[in-house]
Amino acid sequence: MTEPAFVTETRMAYDTVADSYAEELRSLLDDSPWDRAVLTTFAELVGGNGPVGDLGCGPGRLTGYLASLGLDVFGVDLSPGMVDAARRAHPGLRFEVGSMAALDAEDGSLAGAVAWYSLIHTPPEELAPVVAELARVLAPGGRLLTGFHVGDERRHISHGYGHDISLDAYRLPPDFVAELCLAAGLVVEARLVREPQGPFEKAPQAYLLARKPG
After folding, report:
1. Is 0.90 surpassed by the pTM of this model?
2. What region holds the Methyltransferase domain (predicted)?
3. Confidence class of residue 201 from pLDDT cuts 50, 70 and 90?
């Protein structure tokens, strides 16, 4: 079966920028108190209840941070280049090449899932089955944490991290993401929208936390 063009485009773009992306964003969490606060809250809620997937993990910067908070966490990314970078940066953690649209995980096998700016390259009309897949792998009581740019438009990226690339990114309305979670059978526990900060952010940023009932 031929994969959608946006999936191929996303993989190629992140393979191209993997090393420069990893270097440029290596210490980004150090300057992101909001991000650290949300991730720490997620880690406290999930606790030691089971494995956690960092889905769309890139070079593993959040995977490593979540591991430092005591979670049993592994990473999955579409880009083999990103997975290689993650394995080099965090040799003690597990990283796999895979797709959020078809996870290699049993139903109800994860205590938590993080989709941190990893839903943003899927066209909004294609997101419902992706969120349903994230809900599928959560155990009852498990939690999904998402982060994304706020808006309602597509942006085409032709240059990033020192490379020429071709990649679409979508800004998403928080209500839309909440509705996707509800349609997948999740309960939305919290959402937060903040103003942009630092050189990388051009729009408000949102975090949304949802729980699988049970």
Report:
1. yes
2. 54-142
3. confident
